[in-house]
């Protein structure tokens, strides 16, 4: 067995679990934590991400190369082959080494009976690569590496941009930091990073945002453990700025876990009267606590609670809020480059369910807003079904709700007061915002 055979075997195991329906985040983090060498860890990460992003294409390729589908017990072999295609085609690793490592991985997975088949499949692909690529590219899903329902929805919603959105979903995500200005200025943070030989660029419109070029493992960045910054996408950093709570106000963060936006609100305005950080998932609620701890925000007036935002009778004390953030559960189609497994796991029918759920949460939270108060609706989605189609009927049902204009760089203005960010190669993710005021 070659030295890195086991690494490819680990990558195949992780990928097989994602292909079987498990969340990428849930399986990749623990697998990375078991690898001591940072270079091996980085390679595992790159192989799994490229495999998940390319899974639709590479499964179609595999179907062309196999006479009959692999049996269920050979799922890790399928994953090892998908990973091999991704390593050669996407990561551009040397083909002969990848073939040898993949065959070694299949043996290490105790699926020796498939080692010869794996070798033959990869060698045939390398011989017939151009002809097979031409056939693959005729298949729209294989070409765009996204499911047909999502390609169709994006083409419908964004006739001039859908290809750009799909390309963004297949690319590496930029890394954005959010500086905790309670503990030091953005310039200080930039200077520390530069002194450590880690180049970063300030965002032109977001006062806390820095882009790391190239992305780095967070543990390599000076100041992370002391809470000097967080990793948070640029588009997500608009939430605290748009909601703009003032000193002494009561704030509700209705879908708060893991606390990215709760902590940003508190970093900017530790002098609010209170922030209630609510989430329906108690295990995710614990993550908010850990983030507040690291960011040294435990001394602020924040309360963590588990509860259904759609049923305030279970957790509301009856006193209105001046600011409400509804960062609603959504399709995550705006962050496909960060969570590429979403395209494998979501189904077309989920979108209508999510849209109904978003409308339910909005209707339930609206009465909790004080007169003159503001509610910010946010989703990391690029589908109109989760933005315009939620807001427009809501506004028709609630004449006392008025939309406020939003200053969001490069965002599209849409119906229902929505500002839509599309994913940008060196910018933020796809995100939709709408800010409502209660007259
Ligand atoms: C988009 S995430 C929130 C991200 C978070 N605001 C941040 O910035 O870190 C949506 C969250 O909504 C929670 N959620 C889903 N349905 C909910 C409900 N009915 N009530 C409260 N929280 C809910 C999920 O558990 C999930 O943590």
TrEMBL record:
Q: Does the keyword RNA-binding apply?
A: yes
Q: Which domain of life is it from?
A: Bacteria
Q: Which keywords does this chain's UniProt record carry?
A: Cytoplasm, Methyltransferase, RNA-binding, rRNA processing, S-adenosyl-L-methionine, Transferase
Provide the active-site residues from the annotation: 380 (nucleophile)
Domain SAM-dependent MTase RsmB/NOP-type: start-end pairs: 165-439
Annotated InterPro entries? MeTrfase_RsmB-F_NOP2_cat (IPR049560), MeTrfase_RsmB-F_NOP2_dom (IPR001678), NusB-like_sf (IPR035926), NusB_RsmB_TIM44 (IPR006027), RCMT (IPR023267), rRNA_ssu_MeTfrase_B (IPR004573), RsmB-like_ferredoxin (IPR054728), RsmB/NOL1/NOP2-like_CS (IPR018314)
GO BP terms in the entry? regulation of DNA-templated transcription; rRNA base methylation
Example of a GO cellular component annotation carried by this entry: cytosol
Which CDD domains does the record cross-reference, listed alphabetically? AdoMet_MTases
Give the Enzyme Commission number: 2.1.1.176
Q: Which residues bind S-adenosyl-L-methionine?
A: 255-261, 279, 308, 327
* Signal sequence interval, chain numbering: none
Q: Which SUPFAM superfamilies match?
A: NusB-like, S-adenosyl-L-methionine-dependent methyltransferases
Q: Which GO terms describe its molecular function?
A: RNA binding; rRNA (cytosine-C5-)-methyltransferase activity
What does the UniProt entry say about where the protein is found? Cytoplasm
Q: Which reaction does it catalyse?
A: cytidine(967) in 16S rRNA + S-adenosyl-L-methionine = 5-methylcytidine(967) in 16S rRNA + S-adenosyl-L-homocysteine + H(+)
Q: Which top EC class is given?
A: transferase
Ranges annotated as spanning the membrane: none
User: What is this protein's function?
Assistant: Specifically methylates the cytosine at position 967 (m5C967) of 16S rRNA.
NCBIfam families cross-referenced by the UniProt entry: PRK10901.1, rsmB
Family affiliation: Belongs to the class I-like SAM-binding methyltransferase superfamily. RsmB/NOP family.
Q: Identify this protein by name.
A: 16S rRNA (cytosine(967)-C(5))-methyltransferase
- What organism does the UniProt record list as the source? Pseudofulvimonas gallinarii
What taxonomic lineage is listed for the species of origin?
Bacteria, Pseudomonadati, Pseudomonadota, Gammaproteobacteria, Lysobacterales
